[in-house]
Amino acid sequence: MRVTRGIVDLLSGLTIDADLDMLTLYQVKRLAAPASGEALRKGNKDIQNAEVADAAAVALSKLASAVYTQLEADNLFATENGVGLEATVALFQANPATGTFVTNPKYINDNATANPAAASVIGQYAEVNFGKVVRILRWRQFGWIGNDGDGEWKIQYYNLVTHTWIDWVTGIVTRVTSDWSTLDTEIAVLTDKIRLVATVIDTQGATSQLCELEVIF
């Protein structure tokens, strides 16, 4: 490439090609300084490569700052990139529910509609861990004839950024029939676990009951 006489950089004393003046950007990027008296001639490709290297360095710095499990690393990537698997029935039922229900929280996602799980105190919950980052959009419940229908639930999702539980659906009435409700659609969110929480206890038997829950995309 022919180098023509161009602008004189008063700070460095270097002669810079007028068509290839990258000195200021190189100073900002803290790249290698040119040899004394030597013209700096770098093209856009070099700058782009440097920016890619900078981005990689940031990612490596995050990973190096703490020890991550595979799930935590996946969560970090999904949170920063807005991606996740679509939650399916199989994913929802992969891990038995745990929690503080008075009766068998695992019944809410055991793929069996004969046995009810029950909460007897406001705030008791059953938690389903997907085991990976998923997108959720819809939900339904399989009710129980032992309800009076005056209890209420809410579904919360775990926020991967704030590490707090956020209300997703509220005011879910206890269902009095042993069948599925319709699939209701909510705002799609990214999470790795959900909770079904009792907010009003049904008057029948002083317990709120349901046989199954599904939270899927």
Structure overview:
Helices cover 20% and strands 33% of the residues. The chain has helices spanning 23-29, 44-64, 70-81, 89-92, and strands spanning 7-8, 15-16, 85-86, 98-99, 117-119, 125-142, 152-159, 164-173, 184-200, 208-210, 212-216. The strands form 3 sheets. Strands 3, 4, 6, 7, 8, 9 and 11 form a 7-stranded mixed sheet that branches. A two-stranded antiparallel sheet has the order 1-2. Strands 5-10 form a two-stranded antiparallel ribbon. A hairpin with a 6-residue loop joins strand 1 and strand 2 (15-16). The chain is elongated. 27% of the residues are buried. Mean pLDDT is 79; it is low at 1-45.
Q: What is the distance, rounded to the nearest whole angstrom, between the alpha carbons of the first and last residues?
A: 57 Å
Alpha plus pi helix count: 4
The low-pLDDT segments are 1-45
CATH topology of the largest domain: Jelly Rolls
- Strand proportion: 25-35%
Quickly name the level 1 CATH class of the largest domain. Mainly Beta
Order of helices and strands: EEHHHEHEEEEEEEE
User: Mind telling me which CATH architecture of the largest domain this is?
Assistant: Sandwich
User: What is the count of β-strands?
Assistant: 11
User: What is the CA-atom radius of gyration, in angstroms?
Assistant: 29 Å
Instruction: Please give the domain count.
Output: 2
Bulk shape: elongated
Helix content: 10-25%
What would you give as the CATH superfamily of the largest domain?
Answer: Galactose-binding domain-like
* Main sheet makeup: 7 strands, mixed
**Helix/strand class:** alpha+beta
- Overall average pLDDT: 79
